[in-house]
Each structure stands twice: as C-alpha cells, then as structure tokens.
Amino acid sequence: MSTFELKTHKSGRTYSNPHFFILNKGLNSGKPLTNPCPNCFVVTTTTEEAKNTLFHLSMMLQIGGFYAYYLKGSVIPFISVDDCRNTLKKGLKSSGNITNQMQKHIKAVEVISKKEKELQNVIDKMSVLKVAYIRNCFKLMQSKEA
What is the pTM of this model? Predict the structure, then answer.
C-alpha cells in the first residue's frame, strides 16, 4: 500500500516530493488538481507512481460522490482535512485488496480523462472558430453597407 501525506496547502509553498492538490471548498470538493489554488490540500508521496495512483483514485472518489457525503457548511460547503484523508485511505484500502483490477480501472480513468481533455481542446477551438465566422459575417455586411 502506498503511503501519502495530506495537509492544508499554504500559498507560495513549494514541494520537492511528487505531489498534487485536492480542492477542499465548494461542490467540487475532493477534485484533484495539478496546480494549487487558495482552497486546497496538498498530497505528497514518495514516488511518481503513487502520486498518479492517488490522483486518479481521488478523481474516481470525487466523481463517484464519496467526498460529497462529508461536505459541511450551508453557504460554501467544504470537506475537512481529516475526512478527506480518511476517504482517500479507505479508497486505497479497498483498492489494496484488488490491486490489479483497481490499476486497470485507474488506467481506464486516466485514458478517458486524457481523451476528455483532447476533446475539450477541440471544442474550445471550434468555439473560437465559430466566433471568427460570425464576426467575419458581420464585418462583410458592414462593409457592403458603407
């Protein structure tokens, strides 16, 4: 079983070990992040492989709604560092019993996430293209009027 340390991230702090961040406020609490934000925890590990496993496990737990159970607060929901740590540990513990199968699931989620990013990139470019066509259309209409 991989070991990790989860604590509150402080702005400006850098980490030498493999690490990633977990959002701790809002309805997306538990979402793993590659870059820090003001409201996040940092997860540090000893190896890059352990980091990737925990990152995708955290993503699976967040998408599956396992962090949502622990949300507190009425205006801005948040998850405590202990609840986040315990949820991640439970996820690791349950995946420890079926390591090969869990690794396959994590790899599948990793591939799906990569494809999702690629498709989002294509959608963003198409949106820019659509705006360019619309502006070009109105520019042509205005030049004919003048």
Answer: 0.75
